[in-house]
Task: structure prediction
Amino acid sequence: MVLGNRGRNVLDVAATAVELRGVVREYGAKQARVRALDGVSLRFPAGSWTAVMGPSGSGKSTLLHCAAGLERVDAGQVFLAGREITAGTDAELTALRRRHIGFVFQTFNLVGSLTAEQNVALPLRLARMRVSKSDVRAALGSVGLADRVRHRPHELSGGQQQRVALARAMVTRPAVLFADEPTGALDSASARLVLDLLGELVATRGQTVAMVTHDPLAAARAGTVLFLSDGRVVDTADRPTPLAVADRLARLEG
Ligand code: ADP
Result:
């Protein structure tokens, strides 16, 4: 039976990039205590693109941060590529995160004093991985910025900065790419370009992507949409139309 169990574990690891089991996350003390995640269990299958939606304060960012190991959970477990990230020391978690997680933020979070290629090389340096100039340039080329490698963030548009951030998140070839409102600060043309790049990563590389968004058009680009309310997953929709997403969100916000 040992062999059988092992076989099943291997299959699970191959099929599931991230799994949350009964995750609880609370903030504040005593009477001011807020339960941001109230027993969340879900899986992000390998190669899937999932959008997370819900009213403001429903726990979307907390969910993403806990799934990515950026925040500790108060109860429950998080597994990344088959390994429990809620066990282990802070140092182990940091090492795991640097190698296996990519994260894109709404406001890009590039280092202002560094060029695009230095920004992209940063995660490789932090993870003590080999920094190959050709890999860094290829990452920038894949987001259409081969001619901007020496530019600093203030010399780039918002859409270009987000594409540098995407190249930076992908350069370590992470198991999962998390994005917290990646198009929230962009005009619609730049937003569409970033969503096209995410779709290409999923379609051609089998990248797993989990993305928080407020935009029904963005959410409808993902394969699955999860709806959160008061720290719980209250609904999921596969390949919904933008209208169906907007309608479900409006009813949650109502
Ligand atoms: P969303 O991303 O859906 O807007 P969040 O995950 O940011 O929601 O927040 C969920 C709940 O947790 C909210 O009630 C919010 O006020 C609270 N919260 C989030 N972060 C903190 C924090 N650092 N300290 C205290 N409360 C927080």
